[in-house]
# Entry
Amino acid sequence: MSSTHIVSIYDEELKYLSRRISEMGGTAEQMVADSVRALVTTDAALAQKVISEDVILDNAERQINDKAIVTIAKRQPMAADLREIMGAIRIAAELERVGDLGKNTAKRVIAVQSSGMPRKLARGLEHLAELALMQLKEVLDVYATRSVDKAKAIRERDDEIDAIYTSLFRELLTYMMEDPRNITPCTHLLFCAKNIERIGDHATNIAETIYYMATGSQPEGERPKDDTSTSVVAAGLADASE
Amino acid sequence: MNMMSEAAVEKALDKKMNDISYKMIGKDVSVYYGEKRALYDVNLNVRENTVTALIGPSGCGKSTFLRTLNRMNDTIDGCRVTGRITLDTDDIYDPAIDVVELRARVGMVFQKPNPFPKSIYENVAYGPRIHGLAKAKADMDAIVEQSLQKAGLWNEVKDRLQEGGTGLSGGQQQRLCIARAVAVSPEVILMDEPCSALDPIATAKVEELIHELRANFTIVIVTHSMQQAARVSQRTAMFHLGNLVEENDTDKMFTNPDDQRTQDYIMGRFG
# Structure
């Protein structure tokens, strides 16, 4: 922001919101990273830690919303200030959802573990998680710097995650067809993959919100999509794998 | 309060919305107070049946501009206006223009309610009488009632029309002044901070009234309250240091203005 408010406590209130958002972002990032690590290393204790941390994000979102509402009532914010506050409310909701997805992945660790998941299945997930986490990390950096160009770039990169998700979908389907004993762990892994893919979508939503906060307009054009998993069928895979 | 129904207001507005017509056009308007220049080549058009809000910090020229629209500046010694202002097609600074008649067409409501020290009835009847708008007592009664109705004051004062206007509350006095302005059937009503001396309830009533009046009148309002400008107007013009900085749709002005100075001012960031 170019200059400060005449009423300095107003600045403090806005800073509080952005500080809490950054904290939420850090927590969400850690939860997602831990959940994937717990899944890959079948670490039940780490999974439990992730599950118990979700409440931190729930509380933070509530506190951000409360503060935002009080600030709107007290200051009657205009223009960029109003967008700043509305953006904080929206981003807090996105990050809370990211936390939920991490928690859901963590919950599946036990089930996957007990069915005896082959290690190699997890590798594709790790790669997917790396990309999603990078998206999340970058979007949080963009939130700190409010770089419009970078926000746009993040939005345009979501198709990489979608493409890997689709190939992972095919891969898991193939394993299930090879050996029905893989069905239980692979189904859980499919949900985990979907969770991680969704995190990329949330990062994209946050990028769009930041763009709106900075410019007052929505980024133009459709966001790129490369998730073709909706049209993947087992028959086609069977032919291909023969 | 007896107001036009919401549907009637919307219908009247819809008819006007289709094509923008300008009620008043200000071209290269500059104002000097002696040596001091208060306005710099302002080009601002006032849309018909629209509420135009003029905002900006103190001394920015918004009230000065408002006063040029019915030549109130004529009363200030050493004040000089250049440029051209038209009301419909009439150049209002044409020497042939009758200023009294101009001010009947472009009425004004001031910051502090200033009813005449006369009865409520006489406050409203005064203008129509000097302009010869009523032939008989019955005509005058009708004008007074209609004007008080339009100002949303009728139900509160109909049983005490002969009581003094100064005995009303501040908010009622201001609505009486609006009734007085409306009584001569002006085309444009100028309002110079009409709510700054009123409490929030009285302010809300005046704002409601402004919304109703828009169907029949063109309104230009100077206000220090950004929230008020955002609430009552459809167009907003931002002044700074005697210049018109930006004029835009009010919705855009208060969410995403084009000019950095507007942005800083409405967000309370003027350093």
About this structure: Chain A touches chain B at residues 1-7, 10, 75-83, 215-217 (CB under 8 Å).
